[in-house]
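step=encode ok
step=design start
structure_in=
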């Protein structure tokens, strides 16, 4: 799913999110509403809405009488959170499959169905919610207070940095595969699929942060970037 199918507000949000996460907009950068609108070739309204969305995600601060400023993030810590999450989610699923019941499968189906609807619109914020719900349902099925406490925090803190504008369909497909394996009782296969899913997320995050930055440093600027909209 490419960003060109998004609403103007979501397209601007994801364009700025990527620029923040790849370092093209460093921490502390002041974001002028009209400058951003001109650069992305949109009106000020979707830019203002995007600032609010990014503020809710913790990527931008809105300072009185000053405007929007890129929040300082520790990307090394985020990388480590992804690593820990990948390891713990596979183990949590190992515990979950021991007592997997119909109720849990129904909640997983609900998360997948919400993801399908979000992809069709498309609605990035709704998909982020369905994505987090899928992982949280499996986590709670592990019936471990320790895993729940640690992983719920990691899922919330890392989900903002997963570039779902380019990976909604891909993520949904893998969730469907994991669910199908669980419904068939193929627990070993479900564990394998989850491990591959989490490893791919770690790789994608690192590509987003490191690969894009290296590419930008070694390439010639091709002019201002546009927000891709419907």
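sequence_out=
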């Amino acid at each position: 799913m490419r960003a060109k199918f998004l609403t103007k507000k979501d397209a601007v949000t994801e364009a700025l999110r990527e620029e923040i996460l790849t370092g093209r907009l460093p921490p502390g950068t002041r974001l002028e509403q009209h400058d951003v609108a001109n650069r992305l070739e949109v009106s000020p309204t979707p830019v203002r809405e995007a600032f609010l969305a990014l503020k809710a995600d913790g990527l931008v601060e809105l300072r009185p009488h000053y405007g929007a400023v890129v929040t300082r993030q520790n990307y090394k810590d985020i990388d480590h959170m992804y690593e820990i999450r990948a390891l713990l989610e596979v183990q949590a699923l190992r515990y979950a499959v021991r007592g997997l019941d119909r109720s849990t499968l129904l909640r997983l189906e609900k998360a997948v169905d919400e993801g399908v609807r979000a992809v069709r619109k498309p609605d990035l914020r709704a998909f982020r919610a369905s994505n987090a719900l899928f992982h949280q349902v499996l986590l709670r099925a592990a019936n471990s207070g320790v895993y729940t406490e640690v992983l719920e925090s990691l899922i919330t803190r890392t989900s903002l940095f997963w570039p779902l504008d380019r990976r909604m369909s891909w993520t949904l497909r893998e969730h469907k595969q994991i669910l199908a394996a669980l419904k068939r009782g193929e627990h070993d296969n479900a564990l394998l699929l989850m491990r591959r899913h989490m490893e791919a997320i770690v790789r994608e995050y690192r590509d987003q942060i490191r690969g894009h930055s290296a590419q930008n440093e070694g390439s010639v600027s091709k002019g201002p970037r546009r927000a891709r909209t419907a």
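step=design ok
step=annotate ok -> The longest helix spans residues 187-218.
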